[in-house]
Amino acid sequence: MEPRFIIKTHTEALRPGNYSVLITKCTFPDEGANPETVEKRLTQFFPSKKEEKVSSIARYTVLTATLQNRGFGFLLNNMIWSWKGHVINTVLRHLSKSDSNDLSAFNQLTNIERICYLRFFFETEGAIFLKLAERFCNTEQISYQYLKDNIQDIFREIYQEYIDIAPDFRARSRIKEMFGEMKSKRPYDDSTLAHKIKPHIQALADLGILYINKADGEYEFAPTSIGTASSFSIIYSRLKSIQNMENMFLSNEYFPLIAKLYGLTPTAYSENHRDLLIETISYGYKCMCNKITRMADIDALVEWSCIKMLSQHNILVTRQHIDDLFNRIRKEHPSSIQYHLDGKGRIAYIIFTEPL
Predict the structure, then answer these.
(1) CATH number among 2.60.40.10, 1.10.1740.10, 1.10.10.10, 1.10.3720.10, domain 266-352
(2) Given a cut of 60, is residue 19 above it in pLDDT?
(3) What pTM was computed for the model?
(4) Closest Cα to residue 14, out of 197, 196, 199?
(5) Is 130 within 8 Å of 239 (Cβ atoms)?
(6) Could you report the per-residue pLDDT of 21-59, keeping only the tens digit for each?
(7) At residue 306, what are phi and psi to the nearest 5 degrees?
(8) Alpha carbon of 13 to those of 43, 201, 203: distances in Å?
């Protein structure tokens, strides 16, 4: 169990559009590269800014795209797409965004992009989202100054709650080691505060969870409204606590919460939706399968299908639905599906030997 938030990042580095550019323009599914090379590719897509700032944004975008620094894991350490990278690429191909060279186009997220990225942000940033939601529930809006004064305490709360729910001494020790710098009572330096606050806020704004307003030179942040509820009241009422959030996310219960946040009232998947699901899986497989081996990652196909079915058809699909569909197809047409193991001996890849 690792705390779900990124401590070390940079202003503008957590914007979802950055990762879309990184996946579609700077990296590949089967061609590795040095991180420094990818950073240089990425800097070409940022608007004209000071060279040092552009370099920092690119560096932290690449860093947090891997699993280093508790990142998202969109890329492997050799800069090849992970299964999550394949999901993002498939979403962008579906939208025909892959050919664009305009960063602003990638920063303007469509509904399917928001659902896709919010799924991955909850997985990686869920703890900071929960703690912000807790504070927003007590007031209609929060100022940037408030976050400057309280962000260190928010980090400490997350750190302490994960220690409290750690299952054993080893896990507690690992969390203490990972977040040892947070035990310091010394306030954060003003020069670093912006990089501990703004990246998370910018991501939430891009995802449609909050608004950023500026009045009298002061930034104010307010949650979006979904009917009579606010976005953060929904997050807090569903997640409740770090322990409850962990239980939900370990059970992969992301999409009911995401649907609620975007004002969707989805229909539960049934046999009537089988053709739509097969069509979705087929498109995903076409985008994801290796050109030589024809293998596609099952996790990637599952997440893509859940995202597409919810965003385009307002149907709530679970992994079990997809597993059941694969099993049924294999029973009816045994030679049409082949499974392959990963390095840990787990069934992880699939080959469709004939159209679904």
Answers:
(1) 1.10.10.10
(2) yes
(3) 0.94
(4) 199
(5) yes
(6) 999 999 999 999 999 999 999 999 887 666 667 889 999
(7) -60, -45
(8) 12, 11, 9
